[in-house]
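Re: the request from the purification team.
They wanted to know what the chain is likely to look like in 3D before they choose a buffer screen. I agreed to run a prediction and write the result into the notebook, where they can find it.
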Amino acid sequence: MDRSSPTRVTLLEGFGLTLPGRALRPSADDLPRAVQRLLAHLCLSTRVTRAATAGHLWPDVPEDHAHGSLRSALWRLNKAAPGLVEASGTCLQLATDVRVDVRELSDWARRVVVPSGGSQDVALPDSALLGDLLPGWYDDWVLLERERLRQLRLQALEAVAVRLASLGRHGEALQAAHAAVRAEPLRESAHRLVVRIHLAEGNVAEAIRAYELFRTMLEDELGVPPTELMTRLVRHVPRIRRTLAGRHSECPRGRDPVRDGDLPRQRVPSGRTSSG
C-alpha cells in the first residue's frame, strides 16, 4: 500500500472507506456487509488473532464455518483495497497509515482529559467526530464500543469546557458544554457547566434560564429534581433566595425545598442579571 495515500475509514455516523482518488460505497458490489463488519472490527481493535476475529464476527456458526467466512471477507477486502489489512501469522491488523475517525476521537479525548499543558490541546474536536458509532449496527461488540466512545466524548467535552472557561474563553467553553448537552440531554454535569459559564460571564439571567430549562426537562422526563450541586449554583440569586425562604416556611416540617427540588420555575427576563 502506498504509504503516502490518504486512505481513511469513517465509523462515526455511518461506515465509509475512502481510498486515493475514490470512495468505496457500502454495497453488495463494492463492500458487502461482511467486509464492512471485518474492517470496522479491525478499526476498533489493535492486533487481533484470526480466531478471535472469526469468533466475534460469526459467533453463531461452527468454528470452521466462521473461519471460512473470515477468509472470504479478507479476500474480498484485499481485492477492493489491497494492503489495507496486514496479516502476520495468525494475527490481523489495519495498515499503520490508514486514518480512522474513531482513533482520532480517542486521541483528542486523551489529550484533553490528561492535558500536556499546551494551549493546542484546548480545542473542540471537528464536528465529524461528534457522531455516534455505526448507527443501526446492533452487534454486541459495536454496542459496547458505542457506549464507551459516548462516555469518553462526554467526559472530554466537559474537560474542554472547564479548561476553556478557566482561560476566559467563555464562548468556546459554552460550545463545548452545549455539545455535551446535545449528546446527552439529561446529563446534569453538562448542564451545570452551562450554568457555571454563564455565571462566570456575569449573565445571571442566562444562568437561571439554563437552570430552569434543565429542571423542567428532568422533572418531565424522570420525575426527579436537580441535585443539590445544581441548585447551589443559583441559590445566591436574591429572588430565588427569597422564594426559597418563603417556601421553606410553608413546606412540611423536615422537608428542605432546596434538597427536595421544590424551587419554583422562575422566568427571568432576558438581559437582567438580578431581580429586586
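For the purification team: The CA atoms of residues 25 and 251 lie 63 Å apart.
Please add any questions underneath this entry.
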